[in-house]
Amino acid sequence: RTLDQPFLSEWLGRTETIGDWAAWEAFIVALRDRLRTHLQSVSHPEDVTLAILRAAEWVKTNMDARITQVYVARMLHMSRGYFSKCFREVIGKPFADYIKELRIARAKSLLLQTAKPIADIAEECGFLDHRYFSRQFREETGMLPSEYRNAQSVKGDNCR
Fold it and tell me: How far apart are CA 53 and CA 44, in angstroms?
């Protein structure tokens, strides 16, 4: 959940200059302290933060068309507004963006690993309308699902 934070990119860039074990240990201690400070700055009680993290994991394993922000908020006994605010602050992105990224990632995997029709993949990834899915996929990747499948299979053929 912290990987999207700008400071983490800066810290990861520092790893290229670390040479010995003592420097690695110092780096890890400093990074852990920085992450701890960042996580403590989130202004939500620990039980709310843990509930949001559990909800994010639950969404990953139960991606179907019926998952909505209202549904998840009710599961956690939170108002939609409070859930939305907490989710954005804890996870680092709005709920809709989070679920869209998960669904598109799943679709990419299915496009490459199966020969299923695009409409079936769209439905399996939680999109009720395959045309809407294609628009969202293109917005995210710059390609239609069929173009993505074909481009990746051509890359795979060139590697053989």
Answer: 12
